[in-house]
Structure formats: C-alpha cells, structure tokens
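Entry 14: structure prediction run for 2-amino-4-hydroxy-6-hydroxymethyldihydropteridine pyrophosphokinase. Input pasted below.
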Amino acid sequence: MSEYYQTEPQGEVKDQPWFTNQVIKLEIDAEIWAPAGFLSSLTGIEAALGRQRSVPGGPRPLDMDIIAWGDLVMDSEFLTLPHPRAKKRAFVLIPLKELAPDFVFPDGTTIDKALDAIDYRLEDFKIWQDS
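Run finished. Output tokens:
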C-alpha cells in the first residue's frame, strides 16, 4: 500500500473537500477473479459503504478503481484497462510510482514519462493538479 495523498478536487465539481488517495497492489488469482468480476465486487463494496453515483466527480465516501491488470488491455462498456485516465492523474501516478517505481503501461509508457507529461505540484503528501 502506498502512503495516503491529499488531492484537490478535479474536474467540474471544485467546491468539495479534498480527496484522500492511495494505490494498493494486489496479487489476484486468475482462476478465481476476472477483471470485470473483480470490479463488480469493488462496486458492491462502494455501494455498501454509501457510494451514490448521482454526481460524477462529486463527493463520495469511497471510490475504488482498477488501474491495471498486468499487461492486459481491454475496452468494454463496463471496464477499460489500463484505466483510461491513469496516465493523466498525478493522484494515481505518484502513489503508483511509490509501489512500482519501474511500472510500464502496456503501451510502453513508463511511470516517469507519464509524470513528466502532466503539470502537477507535490508538497509532502499533498497533490495539486489542474484538470
């Protein structure tokens, strides 16, 4: 698990509390979980903890995403891997680099190259980024 990072709200809904972000690396048994089934379970946990998807980008008690599933590339109505916005989000890349400093996206983009391509500021465990 990475450290916790505080991130200013991104996107359209700026008038809300800052988010707390963390990346967790899991080893998943492919005989037990497929990516879509795992995401479905995460969505169920979010709902059980009060997540409502009525305001995209709005406040929520919990938001769990799958950033990558090994080298798998997929694009379905329910799940796109790697996460389509991961390379543009400092709040994903910074804690991901903490866990996997040599991480390479399936398209060959390194974590360092992805970070170099975006404009952000990091102070201690606070991240600012214009969206």
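Notes: The helical segments are 35-48, 90-99, 111-116. Will compare against the previous run tomorrow.
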